[in-house]
UniProtKB/TrEMBL annotation:
Record domain 4Fe-4S ferredoxin-type: where: 193-225
Subcellular location: Cytoplasm
Gene field: queG
Binding annotation for cob(II)alamin: R73, D151, L175, L186, S233, C258, D259
Organism, scientific name: Imhoffiella purpurea
Pathway given in the UniProt record: tRNA modification; tRNA-queuosine biosynthesis
Keyword annotations of the record: 4Fe-4S, Cobalamin, Cobalt, Cytoplasm, Iron, Iron-sulfur, Metal-binding, Oxidoreductase, Queuosine biosynthesis, tRNA processing
Entry similarity comment: Belongs to the QueG family.
Entry coiled-coil feature ranges: none
Active site: D151 (proton donor)
Function: Catalyzes the conversion of epoxyqueuosine (oQ) to queuosine (Q), which is a hypermodified base found in the wobble positions of tRNA(Asp), tRNA(Asn), tRNA(His) and tRNA(Tyr).
Protein name per Swiss-Prot or TrEMBL: Epoxyqueuosine reductase
A biological process from GO: tRNA queuosine(34) biosynthetic process
Cited Pfam families: Fer4_16 (PF13484), QueG_DUF1730 (PF08331)
Binding residues for [4Fe-4S] cluster 2: C215, C231, C258, C261
Amino acid sequence: MNHPPNIVRSDSSPAHPNRWLADRIRDWGRELGFQQVGITDTDLSTAEGRLMEWLADGRHGDMEYMARHGTKRSRPAELVPGTLRVISVRMDYLPETPDRTRGILADPATAFISRYALGRDYHKLIRKRLQRMAERIQAAVAPAACRVFVDSAPVLEKPLAEKAGLGWIGKHTNLIDPQAGSWFFLGEIYTDLSLPIDHPGVSHCGRCQNCIDICPTRAIVAPYQLDARRCISYLTIEHQGSIPEALRTPIGNRIYGCDDCQLVCPWNRFARRTREADFLPRAGLDTATLIELFGWDETTFLERTQGSAIRRIGHVRWLRNIAVALGNADSAPEVETALRTHAEHPSEMVREHVAWALERQGSA
């Protein structure tokens, strides 16, 4: 560009003088593969109150990092001094039709992996795209401070996205867009530029409580209230220790995450399939059987999950999760044979879950 308009660093008029830059940021976002871009200020006082209450109730479970940074999570300018605005983006990731996903969930012999984790790790892909957007902003306006985040720092991404007009936080605590459902990732750019802000999202959940009714472990304890300690995504991904016995049977064949609340959300009839090849299934993870995946040794696990979000749970928790799913599978000699291959595993946690699964198979 030749000579851009002057950048004003405070909101001083109804016709915001930086509107031209906000419009260009949206254009750049679309060019970089984001389906939507919104801008908001840094006032998260309402969300901060809810976060503190959630933490005080212990509903974060083992996720001590949620409390580690104090108010930096809910006060962007404490995390990145000088932050005035947050640019929030979303990118669709749905790799297949919901009917196909339901079919996999209904087959107790097949491993179910949350649809977001079937392809490459989204963190790197979205971070690179956001960094390119930040570079374009800095090329247009110098100096401009821009800091990129993709689920990698204490950031309240869903409340920020809601304020930026990307949707509303539903009763299952996921963000919902009225034209795209909820199958998407979020990312942010913190900046010191004063940009015009967007209108926040407005809730359209109404009296619907499909997500509350479908939750296998009753983790959505009330509308807009999630107890992570009961959530299958938490139990199979974040939780480091033994899965409580009372919650093992409801897990079914879900070995990494859970999508039930999204599958029943009526707004997801508007969800679109992803345009990103990197989000499509890899290593046959969308069709693999539980027995097949239970046979992966650690070397194979690391090879097959290279570049995947799944790798972060490690081989021991991978086996823990699959042992639970095999315990929930239909009784069959091949299931028992597979379980016995890890009955003497070096990990006490794996042995415990295998023993539980063998007992379930025997009683069945």
